[in-house]
């Protein structure tokens, strides 16, 4: 996971803790009516216990509470995980066009060679309301 694309002023983070230890994090960037899920990370010792799924479900609820219709994400390695959570693969251009104002997309536009290597996914919320 990279951090170069994080803009703390325009990103919202949620974390999971066990005692004083942060065990996982996830980020939400809004560009209404859409948003971007990013920075999902779970510490190695807490993986395979459902924490990543709980963080994704939490961020989905936060997104729906903010009237997000579609939640996008970039992932080159965790596509199967997100497909299990009902995310569909979409063209990178569709993601970039849907959330052009989020920090991660702005960063990728400045690094087109890295953008070309990405895979993106989306989950529709309009039908779940």
The appropriate CATH architecture is 3-Layer(aba) Sandwich
Q: Could you please say which CATH topology applies here?
A: Aminopeptidase
Which ranges are low-confidence, i.e. pLDDT below 50, for 5 or more consecutive residues? none
Strand order of the biggest β-sheet: 1-2-3-4-6-5
CATH class: Alpha Beta
Number of strands: 6
- The share of residues in helices is 25-40%
Distance between the termini: 32 Å
CATH homology group: Gcn5-related N-acetyltransferase (GNAT)
Structure description:
The chain has a six-stranded mixed β-sheet with strand order 1-2-3-4-6-5. It is an alpha+beta fold and 129 residues long. A hairpin with a 2-residue loop joins strand 1 and strand 2. The chain has one domain: Aminopeptidase (3-Layer(aba) Sandwich), CATH 3.40.630.30. The termini are far apart. The longest helix has 15 residues.
Quickly list its features.
129 residues, globular, Aminopeptidase, 6 strands, single chain
